[in-house]
Amino acid sequence: MTNSIKKIKAGILGASGYTGAEAMRLLLRHPGVELCLLTADRKAGQSVDEVYPHLGGYGLPDMISVAEADWSALDVVFCGLPHGTTQEIIATLPASVKVIDLSADFRLRNPETYAQWYGHEHRAMELQSSAAYGLTEFNRDEVKNARLVACPGCYPTATLLALQPLVKAGLIDPKDLVIDAKSGVTGAGRGLRQNTLFSEAGEGLSPYSIAAHRHAPEIEQEIAKSAGVDADDIRVNFVPHLVPMSRGELVTCHVKLLGDATAEDLNAEFTKVFADEPFVRVLKEGAIAQTQMVRGSNLVVLSAFADRIPGRATVIAAIDNLVKGSSGQAIQNMNLMFGFDETLGLEQAPLFP
Questions:
Q1: How many degrees, rounded to 5, is the angle at CA 217 between CA 211 and CA 221?
Q2: What CATH number belongs to 2-130?
């Protein structure tokens, strides 16, 4: 298919971060993409070899500041910048450049919710209304036709793939969701922080942002959409944890079953909904989703179990937070936007051990 499609020219904003590095790694093997521009203000003037030695020797352009960037020749830009920064830059880009945003700037549809959780008014509301939410498996048509795609956060990606089909099918109560989430330290970004230092994050497990994590309203927004109710009607119990590993994410969701639904019904619904999904693997009965099953890949693995409490079940999903939870999903969306096969550049199998 790629032989009949002209190679597109891509840029990455925030190329020195972990998501930028992962996007570079994946796009280097994509036959339909030429990486032409990499920005990283604090690393401006440095080569990729200097910033990320494992990506050296591939002839990638040096990193430059956003102010130096020439957008005119680009077809698409991946934005891996901090929230608040992305919306201002995107608003200045030529309309011909498609945008795949990995920040939180365009995920929340309600401007008041955005201001509440991110501490300032949205600065590009004229773009918000046209942004497609990039959870690929559930929003393909929107993504295909979008100029701007807002990729979900890593926690919402795993959580929504696990819960959205079950809510939509009326199998679980959308108002009784408890989400125990765990992620590797790359989820906290590459900046220096005391809690992610090796001696402080290693050999320990730490909850953080209890009842105050910014991914909670994003999860609630999409669960409400599946349930056909207002977002204000949904509140989830969501607690993330920092795990002493570099990458990987696992969410354990405790749910209330509706009617006569059973855990077997949940697994059957997964099998039906995701039967043709290239990146969703529903595990056999009794098999438990683990991060070891997805490391380095764009896969999500799912499993559901009956709880010992009657009328309740446990649903587990595992992803690689840097791939399916970030850059891999972004490339999956890019493939749709430009008419490539959805799996192109994402065929790699998981790494083990």
A1: 145
A2: 3.40.50.720
